[in-house]
Amino acid sequence: LVTARNLVQHGEHSFSRVMPTNGMHPLWLYLAALWAWGVDCLGGAWLASERTWLPLQHALALFGAWTTARMARRRGAPGCVAIAVPLAFLLGFPLLHTEAALSYALLALVLSAWVAGPQSPRGGVAFGALCALAVFARLDNAFVVAAILLAGALRPGNRRVFMAAAVACAVPVGAWAVA
Q: Taking the model in full, what pTM does it have?
């Protein structure tokens, strides 16, 4: 959040305003910077308050919970049980003001789309783009996304769809990684 605030207020991609930061989760940084910009437009005094970030964090956590509960109900499981652990983890541990809620929301969307199963190469491309967003939300998600794409490619009859998804995910992530 400090990096996002410095990006908005000073145009610097830095945590300390002395040196550029060497690590970040790009989608989270840009979403946080957009939120910080909106808050700064309303009044810069709010920007330093931790409460400024709560609506964004809670909206992302609730969206992830809604997606997870909907997916669980479609599979015949109770939705409240499916969301209990993630919400307790997100809201009960010191994960507020981190990329955890965005990561959860996007991984819930990825898993929901994977369970539904993209049916065509075009659907695979959309699924791959969603997977790339999940990776950009938290770079560690690349391991989860790779496992999901591999599992999908190993399903009989889905190779073309998931190869399209893998390419659609790998192109933006690869371009970002080498830039």
A: 0.81
